[in-house]
Amino acid sequence: MARVRAVLFDLDHTLFDTEKTERRALAAVAKVAKVPLGPRAVEAYQTINAHVWGEYRAGRITSKELRVLRFHLWLEKMGRDPAHAADLAPLYLEAFSSRGDLIAGASAAVRDASRLGLRVGVVTNGIDRVQRRRLKASELANSFSVVVTSERAGFTKPDPRIIEIALKRLRVRPDESVYVGDDPNVDGLAANRASVPFVWFNPRGSHAGPNITVHHQLTSLRQLRGVL
Question: What does pTM read for this prediction?
Answer without folding.
Answer: 0.91
